């Protein structure tokens, strides 16, 4: 690729300028950082800690937290916010007397990674003084844990059992700029909790927070009574602290013409960097496992074709469902004389730090959830990123020395068309889970809730309607007893919860819990690349005429009969790690079910009961084969959307007349994943209200 393909950006080379217009409160640097590096080849952990940008602000941070109810900390990725601030708080005594310091993350992978890093820095065993909790995995010791990392979703669940989160002294809501649904709900609730618990301290930290709007959010309280019984009242106005980064300049390069295929453009850019630029690792931002795998494949082909160009390249993927061992490779140091290329989703944008990156290739896209309340369809689509994200991505190149960022879009596009910040997840998602959680927390007026960003009313109404049809909410939009309260206790989509609850009456809870566990992981099969034919044949060995859900039961039975053997999985093109995870999740769900008073019972092969239980949860996802369709086109019963059975389903090309699906994925079309045949009369049986306005399902046989 010729060099003139690239146009250097007119952007100021310093990327992370302050865009908020002077809201940033600067604290004096009270402690002096030790800038001298260790005399030894490797810096000790202690001196590494002192060289992080936040270290200079240690005293300032502790002072602000002491004196303010809420402190907002803005700082570049890698400045030490996540790993250091909880330790400073602990050192200052915030974990004394059995209290706990919490630090939330939107992503599970980040929770595990930072927790183990902090345990290492403190030289303690993970799960003791430093622990973490993610859904289905609790690595803490209630008697010993002082610093706890957790997803914001898990903290929300804790509010159900302990509405004032009494065991925490400080809660740090990290990565707040990501504006995940759980982060937004959490911020709204923490603001309420703080009014009842003035001694609770909040830290809102992030890389590119809009500090002004966050600060406004925490300042304006609707009604507030002073905490008379406390001698010391922390200031209500949030403190805002900007932690200066130590990022180096990053030169931005744009393409001159828009690229048509960003995967190919990525590969040629990586190869030309490797060919022409000095040593330094490359971080590539693509959108998901599919295009990451495609890029790796293409790089391998190119490497084969031109051995000279690509020698010395170590190409590694990074996405959240990657097995632990492969994740560790990404974080391990690059061997001398080699160049690492990490091809990542936007997980590496802010929540994980990779050392040694000097070049960034930014595709300009990420996978984002979009929900259309009219069609009631939620899609994960490849969509353009925002300027804030683009700056973050570029910033990853300047951690160790001046770097370069190659943007696979034009400068005109960046300047004129890219939106400046992303849309909060709350405003582009289905809200069923969010609504049930708020209801369970006793928040009745959901539309009047104090949101950092209000969700669209249509999406709220849709969610209320589905929950009403599931029997989770009553006519007054309150949780029903017991179904509503029980459904809220299960940490899964309410449709799955309802399916589990229905299995109790239908006498098939053991089977349904297996199905629920398998549905909650991405896939139990190995990825089909290069082995599609063998994979299809393997699936046929387990395939059930009733569809994927029943097939899962056959698979699970086979796995147990093999003695949970990894060879058996290998032989059957099944992902052994995924099956182990299924066993784990299943065990957790069993415990939850027992707690809810569900009788664990097997239906001993009465598949009809299983199918009815699935329908009781998923009736809203029913669709019907178009009468004269020759290409397998279905229409959803609610919304009349065109959908097709996904090629990974055992019902692909079988095309039964009536089906329900677990989820939709959209590529060139809308595909139904995990599909099961039903009898249409079950729909009106399961949810009369939901289907009352539809024409009667016609009883024509298949
Ligand atoms: O949160 P923030 O992005 O400000 O920084 P951090 O995650 O606390 O990272 C601070 C430093 O710790 C960085 O230099 C990271 O490279 C290092 N770190 C690490 O080596 N391993 C981790 N799992 C996390 C952080
Ligand atoms: Mg961080």
Indicate the multimeric state: single chain
**Overall helicity:** 25-40%
In CATH, the architecture of the largest domain is 3-Layer(aba) Sandwich
Gyration radius (Cα, Å) is 26 Å
| CATH class descriptor name of the largest domain | Alpha Beta
**Sequence stretches where pLDDT stays below 50 over 5 or more residues:** 10-41, 222-231, 696-702
Structural class: alpha/beta
* Mean of pLDDT: 86
Distance between the termini: 57 Å
CATH T-level topology of the largest domain = Rossmann fold
Strand order of the largest sheet: 5-4-6-3-7-8-2-9
Bound ligands, named by name, code or SMILES: cytidine-5'-diphosphate, magnesium ion
Q: What is the domain tally?
A: 4
Number of helical stretches of at least 4 residues: 26
Shape: globular
Strand element count = 22
The percentage of residues in β strands lies in 15-25%
Strand count, sense and barrel status of the largest sheet are:
8 strands, mixed
Protein name: RNA helicase
InterPro entries: DEAD-box_helicase_OB_fold, DEAD/DEAH_box_helicase_dom, DNA/RNA_helicase_DEAH_CS, HA2_WH, Helicase-assoc_dom, Helicase_ATP-bd, Helicase_C-like, P-loop_NTPase
Catalytic activity: ATP + H2O = ADP + phosphate + H(+)
Domain Helicase C-terminal: 266-442
């Amino acid at each position: 690729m010729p060099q003139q393909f690239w146009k250097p950006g007119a952007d100021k080379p310093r990327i992370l300028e302050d865009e908020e217009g002077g809201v940033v409160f600067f604290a004096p640097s009270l402690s002096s950082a030790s800038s001298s590096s260790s005399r030894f080849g490797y810096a000790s952990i202690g001196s590494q800690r002192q060289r992080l940008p936040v270290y200079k602000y240690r005293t300032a941070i502790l002072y602000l937290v002491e004196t303010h109810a809420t402190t907002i900390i803005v700082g570049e990725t890698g400045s030490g916010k996540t790993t250091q601030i909880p330790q400073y708080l602990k050192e200052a005594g915030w974990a004394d007397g059995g209290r706990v310091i919490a630090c939330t993350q939107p992503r599970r992978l980040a929770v595990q990674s930072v927790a183990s890093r902090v345990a290492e820095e403190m030289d303690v065993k993970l799960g003791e003084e430093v622990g973490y909790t993610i859904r289905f995995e609790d690595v803490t010791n209630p008697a010993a844990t002082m610093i706890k990392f957790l997803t914001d979703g898990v903290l929300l669940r804790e509010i159900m059992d302990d509405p004032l989160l009494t065991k925490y002294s400080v809660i740090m809501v990290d990565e707040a700029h990501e504006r995940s649904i759980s982060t937004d709900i959490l911020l709204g609730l923490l603001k309420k909790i703080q009014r009842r618990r003035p001694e609770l301290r909040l830290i809102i930290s992030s890389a590119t927070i809009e500090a002004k709007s966050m600060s406004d959010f925490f300042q304006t309280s609707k009604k507030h009574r002073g905490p008379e019984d406390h001698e010391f009242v922390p200031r209500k106005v949030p403190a805002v602290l900007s932690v200066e980064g130590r990022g180096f300049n990053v030169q931005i390069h744009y393409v001159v013409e828009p690229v048509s295929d960003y995967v190919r453009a990525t590969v040629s850019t990586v190869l030309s960097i490797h060919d022409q630029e000095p040593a330094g690792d490359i971080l590539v931002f693509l959108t998901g496992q599919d295009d990451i795998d495609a890029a790796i494949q293409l790089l391998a082909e190119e490497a084969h074709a031109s051995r000279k160009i690509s020698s010395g390249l170590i190409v590694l993927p990074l996405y959240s469902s990657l097995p632990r061992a492969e994740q560790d490779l990404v974080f391990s140091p690059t061997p001398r004389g080699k160049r690492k290329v990490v091809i990542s989703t936007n997980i590496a944008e802010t929540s994980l730090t990779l050392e040694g990156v000097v070049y960034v290739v930014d595709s300009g896209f990420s996978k984002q959830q979009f929900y259309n309340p009219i069609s009631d369809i939620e899609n994960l689509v490849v969509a353009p990123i925002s300027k804030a994200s683009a700056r973050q991505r570029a910033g990853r190149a300047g951690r160790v020395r001046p770097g370069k960022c190659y943007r696979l879009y034009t400068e005109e596009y960046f300047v004129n068309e890219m939106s400046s910040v992303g849309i909060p997840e709350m405003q582009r998602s289905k809200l069923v889970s969010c609504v049930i959680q708020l209801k369970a927390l006793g928040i009745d007026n959901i539309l009047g809730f104090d949101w950092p960003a209000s969700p669209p009313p249509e999406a709220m109404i849709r969610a209320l309607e589905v929950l009403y049809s599931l029997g989770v909410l009553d006519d007054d939009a309150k949780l029903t007893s017991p179904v509503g309260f029980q459904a809220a206790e299960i940490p899964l989509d309410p449709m799955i919860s309802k399916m589990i609850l229905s299995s109790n009456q239908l006498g098939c809870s053991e089977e349904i819990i297996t199905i629920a566990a398998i549905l909650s992981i991405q896939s139990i099969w190995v990825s089909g690349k290069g082995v599609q034919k063998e994979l299809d044949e393997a699936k046929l060995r387990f395939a059930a005429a009733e569809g994927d859900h029943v097939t899962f039961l056959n698979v699970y039975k086979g796995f147990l009969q093999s003695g949970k053997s990894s060879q058996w999985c290998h032989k059957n093109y099944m992902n052994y790690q995924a099956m182990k995870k299924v066993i784990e999740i299943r065990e957790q769900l069993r415990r939850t079910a027992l707690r809810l008073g569900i009788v664990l019972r097997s239906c001993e092969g009465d598949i009809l009961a299983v199918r009815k239980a699935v329908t009781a949860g998923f009736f809203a996802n029913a669709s019907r084969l178009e009468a004269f369709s020759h290409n397998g086109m279905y229409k959803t019963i609610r919304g009349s959307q065109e959908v097709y059975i996904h090629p990974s389903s055992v019902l692909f090309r079988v095309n039964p007349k009536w089906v329900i699906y677990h989820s939709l994925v959209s590529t060139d079309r809308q595909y139904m994943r995990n599909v099961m045949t039903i009898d249409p009369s079950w729909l009106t049986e399961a949810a009369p209200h939901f289907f009352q306005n539809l024409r009667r399902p016609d009883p024509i046989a298949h």
